[in-house]
């Protein structure tokens, strides 16, 4: 074992690479050619101090020419600052509680507030209830917290109440929260709390819009002078109050004329924090950072969240020479210890589930007559789930009552919801769009509300009329090999156990390393692939894939029919009607099932989403019960539906966005990405 020797020289020698001079010069001038922005290069502070590695602090059993400098061992700490809690609905305490939860994950040394702790503007009995609620939530912090008084905390209402004290709620505040002004020391820093609602010294009127009520009293000014003197040797002094008096407005000029000069003279006042205006602002002056916070549950318009109108808290990192500040939206801190494999699996179950319906919508030539459909949402996980189910369509002629439903599902619970649905039009035209139900879910863990990606489930429909024989020319589904596919719902396909046939026509523009044609594979089920042009089929039976493969690759630009057949004794692959390969199977072997969709022109990934896309044309996709082919045959260019057909997509015409299924399931589907129909050239 050897220690890392101390390298006194800061220069690092690296063996020269054999790079052409022009390329080497270009790399030196632009070492980050893939970087599209330089936001990370705009620093507020200089780099942190470092020291060379020493035997006592650095250890390795490897040799290297690179010196890894170590951080200086100086005191540094983090504190948080909370903005206003009040001015919003009573449920704003939920946001405050979320901020407490966030900060407990970070564990700063302390938390400061900038006032407006309770809704206030009331008499003492109501004030006491709100005070207890706020303190109960804040006392869940793992670190100490320090209050600042705001107008909501001290203003009494009604003003003409004969029992109103001269100082309103000042005494209540000092009895239950703490002094109206105070200071304390922490790690060579001085924290000073001021009171910005003393009121008019003559009339006692508390009013943040009148300059006469917004002047610091002689008593508090003397305290501030003494507190600054006590912190003279501190690395930093931080000031906290509720009203950002430096903004002027109805605050008058007292701050700029009396207070700011005093802070400037102290020489080590680093930052002043306030709230009240419910938006973030930064107004530095004379080397002092004046910082205004938004809210942690207070009234919030949210009109420009990216510009500081949001629920947030500040984290301040203090070093002897400098201070870093960053704002974090409430609720964004993630609990590392909660992101377990089990949580991920349960979230995945929620994300993949579809809404179930008790019946399809009958679609006539003029739309859908008034029909009541029951939609079913379930909770398959072991934690409660909040959900919203919303009807949505790009066609405004749908009428759905109610248009959405909210609810909470306990573990294992299911909810049936009735929707009254209708659609009226003189005829089904090209503007027709189907109806979808959007499921939004939140997984409620012990400490966090996790938002599940929304899922869209098309409302099933059945044609209540005969579309008539198509006179359209033969067309096929054109896909681009990037993100185009068609998904067939597994639960509605309901492919029985035992023998089946999956087939299609295709013409590739090009092949990739892995290309799905007609697949449902993911350690289970079956699939047809055309990877690098080599046709393969597989069925997952008795715990493993039973695969068949064409002996030669299929060239691009050629129409080819392929069929995968599983019968009682074998899995067979037919290419253009000829048997290409076969493997024996036991009749008792069962197909391993999954709930993923059957994908056309792609292959499902681990979450069921399409990947491994096909590039070219796909036509005449048919899934059948039983072994349709047992010997060589002449494939029909346009396939037909019969008593064994489950689904058949001729891809010759659409009804709005739907590709019609002429099989027994009536499983009309939409294409994802930019897939569209293209005429098939003879």
Describe the protein in words.
The structure is a single chain. Helix 6 packs parallel to helix 7. The termini are far apart. A nine-stranded antiparallel sheet has the order 30-29-28-27-34-25-41-40-39. Strands 24, 26, 31, 32, 33, 37, 38 and 42 form an eight-stranded antiparallel sheet that branches. The protein has three domains: 82-329, Metallo-dependent phosphatases (Purple Acid Phosphatase, chain A, domain 2, 4-Layer Sandwich), CATH 3.60.21.10; 340-463, Immunoglobulins (Immunoglobulin-like), CATH 2.60.40; 475-679, Jelly Rolls (Sandwich), CATH 2.60.120.200. The protein is of the alpha+beta class and 682 residues long. It contains nine helices and 42 strands. Strand 7, helix 6 (218-230) and strand 8 form a beta-alpha-beta unit.
Q: Brief description of this entry?
A:
By secondary structure, this protein is α+β, with helices and mostly antiparallel strands.
Please outline the helices and strands.
Blueprint: H1 21-29, E1 50-51, E2 70-71, E3 77-82, H2 92-106, E4 110-113, H3 124-138, E5 145-146, H4 151-154, H5 170-176, E6 182-186, E7 189-193, H6 218-230, E8 236-240, H7 254-266, E9 269-274, E10 281-282, E11 289-292, E12 312-318, E13 323-329, H8 341-352, E14 356-357, E15 361-363, E16 367-378, E17 385-392, E18 398-401, E19 404-409, E20 414-424, E21 436-444, E22 449-458, E23 461-463, E24 475-480, E25 485-488, H9 490-493, E26 500-510, E27 516-519, E28 526-531, E29 534-541, E30 544-549, E31 560-566, E32 570-575, E33 578-584, E34 598-600, E35 603-604, E36 610-611, E37 615-625, E38 645-649, E39 654-655, E40 658-659, E41 669-672, E42 676-679
Parallel strand pairs: 3-4, 4-5, 7-8, 8-9, 9-11, 15-23
Antiparallel strand pairs: 1-2, 3-12, 6-7, 10-11, 12-13, 14-16, 16-20, 17-19, 17-21, 18-20, 21-22, 24-37, 24-42, 25-34, 25-41, 26-31, 26-37, 27-28, 27-34, 28-29, 29-30, 31-32, 32-33, 35-36, 37-38, 39-40, 40-41
Helix pairs in contact: 2-3, 6-7
